[in-house]
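Batch manifest, entry 17 of 40.
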Amino acid sequence: MQAKMPGFLAVALLLLLIPANALALDPPRSGHPVFDRAVQLVFDNFHDMSALDRFGAAVRQEIEDADTPLTKNSSNARADEAIDAVLASLEASHTGRFQRDTIDYFELADIFRFALRNDMERLFPPKGDASYPGIGMIARPANGALFASDVYDGSPADKAGIQVGDEIISVDGAPYHEIDSFQRQVGKTVEVSLRRHVGEKPITVKVAVEQLRPLRTFEKAIENSLAVSERSGKQIGYLRFWTLSSPNGMEIVNRALATGRLKDADGLIVDLRGRWGGGPADAAELFVGDTPSFRLISRDGEDMLANVRWRRPVVAIIDEGTRSGLELFAYALKTNGIPLVGTRTAGALLAGRAYLLPDDSILELAVSDAVIGEDVRLEGRGVEPDIPVTFSLPYAAGNDQQRDAAMQAMERILAGG
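Output type: structure tokens
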């Protein structure tokens, strides 16, 4: 039997292993309340204490900047710039600041609603339900313009015919802003001017504006992504995991596979090109687990799915949007011989937590490392595809090379190739 170390010796040894500068956890201060609170939260909670020297140096550099030193009287814009700079010095995923003029803010508030529970009713009166006015579309810059990068399945943008790759020019004649463009427009329609093909004249589509609940929107998108295509006499199912964070997302997928739209498919395309990861670490068990499927049946004949397992062929799609829990999902599929199509995943597998800053912006911070098995880390590394296929966003006009390649791979599998 191994001898136990006396308590005081264990504490002493632990203290020797902690860098001396980490014991005080007293970072430099600028006097600016939002900046200083963000810095203190990093020193108190960031998972990698070895990064705090580098972080502290970045903090001092911002405070002592010769041209624009950061002080309590600095503008919000200067503080924003400084916070972004010091957080970037940590070189970690699940670490960033989000403000209320972005969809990210509302989606993260809903995902981290428990961590923010004491402030949710104040932030989102009257019941504390995170929501924002929008059309279910994400746009990102490329080549000096904005392009629709995500159109949530079943959203108003999807129903109006907006496609991934469309250049977003304006909303009601004004520049597009993902929150401000839709303020006070809920229940109304807006005119979105877009360009589908390079050099062509813009077209205008009318889109209904809704008050969107983020996690419900993701669940709706997962359900509306379900599709079956016939290829060479075979039925190929498709589903997209927009996130693993929604409470009912896995249940929607389980039902579709066991008793719903996908139950008779010969093979399945699992799209892991998501917005956020999160969710259960064992989500991939649905496709690679060894336990049998079973249902619980009550005396009145009503059944409840207790354990669903998909035993037919699977091909998965990945890209830089495959992160966190979805990245672990992709890794599990790959190590079990399921082919991955697309581009390398985000390399963003740490455990994050949300904190509210004094201006009600959200600080997401990596609070734990994530290790697979004995020593595998995906942070900064990601998962490589088995079949590399790039996706060109600008003017994609609804074409999806990665989904097409996944379909072709599934056809080969079902044909015995």
